[in-house]
């Protein structure tokens, strides 16, 4: 059965690059979201066992998504994908329940390493 994943980024190009960075052998069903509200809608619809989440977005940013998921019991595996590589940003997302942090531009090997490390693939 395919794993439902959601890729959240306000940039369509960034979402496309993230999709290309996913392991080709991974059996997935991809949902895309352009902001945090769409990400939460996908999560509530059961389309986000794994979520690749940008931080800087309109409507609702990645921090707000993480805060909401944490309040709701965080029943998804969140990997933050962001150009903001400040240590404070990384600490904050991890404290909010993110499992990993990947810097943009995404690296296919790094994505695979994280997914394997956590037993997702």
Explain what you see.
This protein has one domain (3-116): Response regulator (Rossmann fold), CATH 3.40.50.2300. It has 5 helices and 5 strands. It has helices at 12-21, 36-44, 62-71, 87-95, 108-117, and strands at residues 3-8, 28-33, 50-53, 77-82, 100-103. A 5-stranded parallel β-sheet has the order 2-1-3-4-5, sandwiched between helices. Strand 1, helix 1 and strand 2 (28-33) form a beta-alpha-beta unit. It is globular, with a radius of gyration of 13 Å. The mean pLDDT is 95.
Q: What is the compact description of this entry?
A:
The chain is α/β, with parallel strands linked by helices. It is 40% helix and 21% strand. The chain has a five-stranded parallel sheet with strand order 2-1-3-4-5, sandwiched between helices.
- The low-confidence parts are none
**Judging from the principal axes of the Cα atoms, what is the shape?**
globular
Name of the CATH architecture: 3-Layer(aba) Sandwich
Question: What do we call the CATH homologous superfamily?
Answer: Response regulator
How many distinct domains? 1
Strand order across the largest sheet: 2-1-3-4-5
Q: Encode the helix/strand succession as letters.
A: EHEHEHEHEH
The level of helicity is 25-40%
* Percent range for β-strand residues: 15-25%
Q: What average pLDDT do the residues reach?
A: 95
- Alpha-carbon distance between the two ends: 13 Å
Report the CATH topology name.
Rossmann fold
């Amino acid at each position: 059965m395919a794993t439902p994943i959601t890729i959240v980024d306000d940039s369509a190009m960034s979402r496309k690059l993230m999709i290309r960075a996913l392991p080709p052998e991974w059996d997935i069903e991809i949902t895309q979201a352009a902001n945090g509200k769409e990400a939460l809608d996908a999560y509530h619809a059961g389309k986000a066992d794994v979520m690749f989440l940008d931080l800087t977005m309109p409507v609702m940013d990645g921090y707000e998504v993480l805060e909401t998921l944490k309040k709701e019991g965080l029943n998804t595996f969140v990997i933050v994908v962001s150009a903001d590589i400040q240590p404070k940003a990384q600490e904050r997302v991890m404290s909010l329940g993110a499992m990993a942090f990947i810097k943009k531009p995404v690296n296919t090997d790094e994505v695979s390493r994280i997914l394997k490390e956590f037993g997702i693939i």
